[in-house]
Every structure is written in structure tokens, then in C-alpha cells.
Design a protein that fits this description.
It contains 4 helices and 9 strands, in the order αββββββαβββαα. The protein is of the alpha/beta class. The strands form 2 sheets. The protein has a 5-stranded mixed beta sheet, sandwiched between helices.
């Protein structure tokens, strides 16, 4: 009787081990998709805390008057350091990504060799960052080199072709495992420092615009009920 029970337990255990092994890739993908945004936030939060920098998250903005009848543009994070303003887009995709970063669309191939065309997140974020810079730029200030950097941070499991791995002055496309290291490298640039008063004013400007838009959207939804 005891031997039979042991055999049954052993068979059940083997069954669950095999089932877990079969489902492991899907479980791993699900967990990564669920947690990758939190991991990016933790990297940025830790960097901001350690270096006494400013970080704002979950920003919604109308980048022009013509956008005000549409859904606002969303920015996942904006990190303001003493040298740069990093504007982040969190990007998740599953499979392999290829194409040309100058094109409006890229191609995503999954592990079943199915290919779909997706909006180029790097180009889209670059365009939005330029609009954001124009939105918050003070016309009374002297024209200076841009301190805004577009950063698209993708999940570590995404396979990216070499020609898509971008690391330039104003635009970066990297996996989040390299994020902290990349910011530290960029921060070594010998550029003029941004005055603290200007950084704080920029944060307040962006945050107030975003809070006002969110409140306005909430009010409209309440009136529609």
C-alpha cells in the first residue's frame, strides 16, 4: 500500500515537472511582460535617489493645440539630471525585431515565424520628444544645444538586429538590463550643467500640465456617466 502511494506521488511529481518544463517559456514571458515596467522604474528611481536627480512618471501631455481633441501623448518616465533630460518609452515585444530605424514601421517575427508590422517606437518617441522640447521651451531663452534625450527601453528577451541597436547623442534604444550603465556613460559627457532652478521649473511645468489634463479627462468621464 505504501509502495503504491509512493509510486503515485512520484508519477504525479514527474507529471508536474514535465508540465512546468513545457510551460516554462510561456510562464517566463508572462512574468517578464508583467514586471518589466516595474524593473525599468526601479532602475530609474534608484539612479535618481543615488545621484540626487529628479524623476517623474506617468506623464500625459497635449504636445500641440491640434492634439487637444485627441488622446494625450503618454511618456512613461522623464529623468532630469544635471546634464540631460531623458524621456522614456517602455517597449515590450516578443520575438525578433528588424527593419530600418528611419522607417515609420518595423517588423516583428515571433517564434512561430509569423511576422507583423509595428509602429517604429524609436522614431515615434524621437518625434514626441522634439515636440515636448518645443512645448516647454522658453522663447525668451537664448537658443542652446538640445539637452533632451529620447530613450526607448525594451525587455531583455527581445531579439534586436544589430542595425537597430541605437546609441547616439539624442536617441537610445536599449534593453533595460543596460539602462543604468548607459545613463552613467552618457552623464560623463562634458556639457554645460543645467541650473537647478531651470530643472525644477521644467518639472513643475510638465507635472502641472499632466495633472491638469488627467483631471480634465476624469471630469469629462464623470459628466458622461
Amino acid at each position: 500500500m505504501i509502495t503504491t502511494i509512493i509510486v503515485i506521488i512520484f508519477i504525479v511529481l514527474i507529471f508536474f515537472i514535465l508540465l512546468f518544463a513545457l510551460l516554462y517559456p510561456e510562464i517566463k514571458r508572462t512574468l517578464e511582460k508583467h514586471f518589466y515596467r516595474k524593473k525599468i522604474y526601479k532602475v530609474l528611481h534608484y539612479y535618481a535617489e543615488e545621484n540626487d536627480e529628479l524623476l517623474i512618471n506617468d506623464i500625459d501631455l497635449y504636445l500641440s493645440q491640434s492634439d487637444e481633441d485627441l488622446k494625450p501623448t503618454h511618456f512613461d518616465h522623464i529623468l532630469l539630471t544635471k546634464k540631460y533630460v531623458y524621456v522614456f518609452l517602455d517597449f515590450y515585444a516578443y520575438g525578433g525585431l528588424y527593419g530600418n530605424l528611419n522607417d515609420n514601421y518595423l517588423f516583428l517575427k515571433n517564434y512561430h515565424n509569423k511576422v507583423k508590422k509595428i509602429i517604429n517606437p524609436v522614431l515615434a518617441n524621437e518625434i514626441n520628444v522634439k515636440k515636448l522640447e518645443r512645448l516647454v521651451h522658453n522663447p525668451n531663452e537664448d537658443e542652446e544645444p538640445s539637452c533632451f534625450v529620447s530613450v526607448v527601453c525594451y525587455n531583455n528577451s527581445l531579439i534586436v538586429s544589430d542595425n537597430l541597436k541605437k546609441n547616439q547623442f539624442s536617441s537610445v534604444f536599449i534593453p533595460y538590463k543596460n539602462l543604468a550603465k548607459e545613463i552613467k556613460v552618457i552623464e560623463q559627457d562634458n556639457v554645460p550643467l543645467i541650473p537647478d532652478a531651470l530643472t525644477e521649473a521644467l518639472v513643475n511645468n510638465i507635472k502641472k500640465r499632466s495633472d491638469d489634463i488627467k483631471e480634465d479627462i476624469r471630469s469629462k468621464k464623470k459628466r458622461q456617466k
